[in-house]
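Ticket opened by: R.M.
Priority: normal
Category: complex prediction / small molecule

The reporter submitted a protein together with flavin mononucleotide and asked that the result be attached to this ticket for the collaborator who will pick it up next week. Submitted input follows.
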Amino acid sequence: MKLRTQFDGLTLENPLMPASGPLVGDLEKLSFMRDEAGTGAVVTKTIAPREPKIPKPCIYTDTRRQFVMNSELWSEHPMERWVETFLPAYRKKNDRPLIISVGYSKADMETLIPRLEPFADAFEVSTHYVGTDLSVIADTVRTIRSLTNKPFYMKISPHIPDAENYAKAIKEAGANGVVAINSLGPTININPARRRIEYAPEDGFVWTTGPVIKNLALATVYKIKQAEPDLTVIGVGGVASAEDVVEFLLAGASGVQMLSGALLKGKQLYAKIIRDLPKVLEKFGFDSVEDVIGTELDNPTSYEDELPTLIEEKCIECMLCVKTCPYFAIEFKDRITFAPDKCFSCGLCVSVCPTDAIEMDKLR
Ligand SMILES: Cc1cc2nc3c(=O)[nH]c(=O)nc-3n(C[C@H](O)[C@H](O)[C@H](O)COP(=O)(O)O)c2cc1C
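Result attached by the on-call engineer:
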């Protein structure tokens, strides 16, 4: 099964990359991604010309509810350390693309890009702390384009309200694509037992990531690709399985990044997802990653009512459908029954059933 994906002159032997963050914060971690995780490309922690002031502790995970909250900023290592130590050592083995993440302003780019250029196959540019004015972001893009011929991708944050216009502005200014999305926020982490806010700087706010943001990330990828089909989109946010990777590729991504999945389940998740991808592609009827990327999604919207049906031999009488039906339309009378006068055809029972015992033709 071919897992290769290609965009803007970069070739990735598989579509998974680490997302910028602590797992790519120095030479040891970059080498782990290349030599043990086996990701198709490696991305660095965001490098910026200023020292970050990071509260401790700063990374919280809720494994039950599948999210991460953090108050990290950019790399704790100065640019000089990256240029003099980490990057030259890492690049001695030069077998897959290295995307260097940089932040944040136009002036920062003038400092960073010329120094980092010799080590980068591409750049990813965080706009997390630069506000929402698209003319300022476009100006930064023009500056980067004047400093490098290499591909670069602008990373969009969920607090930037208009993904389509962001994409249009950065494309017109000369960027190759978008990385969607950065962390969701501001959010807050309240510990009720101790009556306090935790893991946060003085303002009390932290950033949320992981599976809880996946649907927002997918929608942002989809919106951008629909609005600007020529832009490369790299999807990120909530990936934790090979199935998630396929969803991002179908939404319009050419490559996919992950961080929180590994903070919740362990760093071996990168290698596992790459191992799982061939059988997941086969399960969904795809021949290759490129086959997924070229697929157009159907959206068979319908406004016609349809009563669900029960496949009796699959029903284990767990009553979950009865308990969750928001229209009080499911009852247990010897068997699960649907009241035609009450059923709203909402479809919740089909997705809630743990044994796939409820069907609707529309959802087949
Ligand atoms: C602890 C932590 C640190 C992060 N640091 C950075 C960073 O330095 N630069 C950046 O662009 N994004 C950073 N991010 C955001 C991630 O790159 C990614 O966009 C986000 O976490 C969503 O992906 P995920 O759900 O797979 O984690 C960080 C996220 C976390 C959880």
